[in-house]
Amino acid sequence: MNVNKIALVGNPNTGKTSLFNALTGLNQQVGNFPGVTVDKKVGKLKLSNRTIEIIDLPGTYSIYPRSKDEEVVYDILSNPQHPDFPDAVCVVVDSSNLERNLLLFTQIYSLAIPSVLVLNMSDIAFRKGKKILIEKISEQFPEATIIETNARIKSGVKQLVDTLDTKIKSRNSQAKALIAKENVLEQQQDTEQKFQEINELVKNCVLQETNLKPRRKVTRLDKLFVHPIWGYSIFLVVLLALFQLIFTLASFPMDLIDSLFGSLSSYLYGVLPTGMFTELVANGIVPGIGGVIIFVPQIVLLFFFIGILEETGYMSRVVFIMDRIMRPFGLNGKSVVPLLSSAACAIPGVMASRTISNWKERLITILVAPLMSCSARIPVYTLLISLVIPNRLVFGFLNLQGLTFFGLYALGIISALLVSVVLRMFVKTNEESVLLLELPDLKSPRWKNVGITVFDKARLFLIGAGKIIVAISIVLWALGTFGPTERTNTAIQHVEKPTSKDEVELAAYEKQVNAVKFENSYIGILGKTIEPVIKPLGYDWKIGISLITSFAAREVFVGSMATIYSVDADGEETRSLLEKMKQEKNAQGQPVYTLASGLSLMVFYVYAMQCMATFAVVKRETKSWKWPIVQLVYMGVLAYVSSWIIFQIFS
Amino acid sequence: MKQTLATSKRGNILHVLSVQQSAISAKLIEMGLYVGQEVEILFRAPFGDPIAVNVGGYVLSLRLNEAALIEVA
Ligand SMILES: Nc1nc2c(ncn2[C@@H]2O[C@H](COP(=O)(O)OP(=O)(O)O)[C@@H](O)[C@H]2O)c(=O)[nH]1
Ligand SMILES: [Mg+2]
């Protein structure tokens, strides 16, 4: 029979995604299933005369859902009216572990949906000395087509394509209705019953070679990775190496992107006619887009490395050894990956929490993820540290500036754990917290799978965060460009006019005027309005303005400061910004940037949730306004109170 | 006293006798821990929890309180 829409289902780690990639290549789209936050991956398989739509469904052990993600599979397959209901189902199983895998297949087979049974991982079954008698399995499931594949080297993929094209058998037998989602007891009995049958079947259909050298059940690497001392040491070294690599490798493309967008802006200024439109493009849109793209190198690199750790199976060992440590904090071993990702950007971090099936643990992970210092904070930390922290050694070998930088990161991590403990008391759930994680064999990574993961995440970031960052940049640009006309004009008149036609002097005058315009724009007024509120933290209205503009993305702080102090912020010019800021005095003639106010500001940036993109993602992932607002408020209060305390202590 | 997967020793090859009824028992059974299944503890995480168990040919990690639901012999 001819089919147009096929769903891929199977247990986790059976090679579904590998097969999906092999069938569709890069013809993939990631969307969302309505009502749940599971990624819906749809791809197109091109045949000679038509294309077939293929959906990669979330991995599950049973058709009966035990987590929100798995519900998608049940909802689609139990309802022929569902828009995603497929014409046929392709059940991917791990041939080396047929018994557990066949449960899902038998459940789906009894629904009388046309089905294909894909015996994947045939190489591993062979290595374990298992021979599968396909004809015998066929006798049990006469209305299904059975195919052997090895998605790793793509053997059998051609036959699979052929089958999907023309050889899918239509169903004649009567469908057996699924047990209701809530009726767990009956499901359990049904499962036990099915396993007895499968047991029989496997005995008859799988020949086990017995004179095989017994395989080592626990490999040396496994022992090392879960060792009380070596396990944690290796994880620590992996983490340090990972971040070291990311920062060194990403700095070159980031500088490049920075200067590219800088030149693009000045180029546009040169060629476009002077006016509002040019201002908007060159000063609002282009820097806004640049501010998004600049994060891509770090995000790509981080997910490249995380992808490798996951593909090789090392990450599941990390989850295994971290679970006991994370549990007292109300987190799960699986929280490690989202928190790690958040060190690059909270957006993919929050999305990575989807693997945590327990809602409470997942929510806590989401709520604390933005406390991890993301890459947008680095320029802010760097500027403030060189401003107020002396560049000298303590204890003879530790650089004080480096130590402060490390301290800010550590503050974020420790706070994330402490906040989790508090949230743990407030977030209620009646769901059981479980680990139940399969530990796949350790193996070398498939580069194509890693590549596609990276591509996916970068796309998610660009689309998810990108839109919002660009939109907010434009709004902030407008607020920073426009202001009450009269007020602005009076202020400009007060700027000292240049006395000669000297170019340097003219340029200086222009910058002064820009600074004054910015000061009297709506944002400037806003900054002055909030001054009384932030004064106890040691900030003046100029800092207030920069705090507000940081809501697009935190690193905008540096650019705003540069505009306010009327200097260019590019490369070497940061120096002059530093000088200006150092000389800045308040009304009483005291310096604005002291150790106290500088530290207070750094702590503020560690805690405050100044990121609208994260806010939007949290809203999407939690399906409510409540949690992003809770997050915004608790992080804001934490930022305000801690900064105040720091300022009081150090001044 | 009943022996459960949580109290058994590493390296002993055992069989599941029963799974105590609980919120996660259906899930445990679906993951292959049905009555009669062959199980063996392979290794433990630091602090002894969670544990990694060979369940009829694949490795499953579970917490001690989850393992305590599974009576073995
Ligand atoms: N040896 C072998 N490994 C495979 C095969 N198919 C997939 N893999 C690997 O198994 C792991 C899990 O595959 P993936 O496609 O992510 O599985 P999914 O969880 O079902 O989507 C990856 O490391 C793949 O490289 C296969 O046929 N043979
Ligand atoms: Mg997958």
What does it look like?
The complex is a heterodimer of chains A (651) and B (73). By secondary structure, chain A is α/β, with parallel strands linked by helices. Among the domains of chain A are: 5-208, P-loop containing nucleotide triphosphate hydrolases (Rossmann fold, 3-Layer(aba) Sandwich), CATH 3.40.50.300; 230-454, no CATH class. Chain A has 28 helices and 12 strands. In chain A, strand 10 (393-394) and strand 11 (398-399) form a beta hairpin. The model of chain A has no long low-confidence stretch (mean pLDDT 88). Chain B is mostly beta strands and 73 residues long. In chain B, 14% of the residues lie in helices and 36% in strands. Chain B has a 5-stranded antiparallel sheet. In chain B, a hairpin with a 2-residue loop joins strand 3 (51-55) and strand 4 (58-62). The radius of gyration of chain B is 11 Å and the shape is globular. The relative contact order of chain B is 0.33. The A-B interface holds A 61-62, 64, 66, 94, 96-97, 99-100, 103, 128, 184, 187-188, 191-192, 195, 199, 217-218, 222-223, 226-228, 231-232, 316, 320-321, 323-324, 333, 431-432, 434-441 and B 22-32, 34-36, 40, 42-47, 49-50, 52, 54-63, 66. Strand 12 of chain A pairs antiparallel with strand 4 of chain B, so a sheet runs across the interface. Bound molecules: guanosine-5'-diphosphate and magnesium ion (MG). Guanosine-5'-diphosphate binds at residues 10, 12-18, 59, 120-121, 123-124, 150-152, 311, 446, 449 of chain A. Residues 10, 12-18, 59, 120-121, 123-124, 150-152, 311, 446, 449 of chain A line the site of guanosine-5'-diphosphate (GDP).
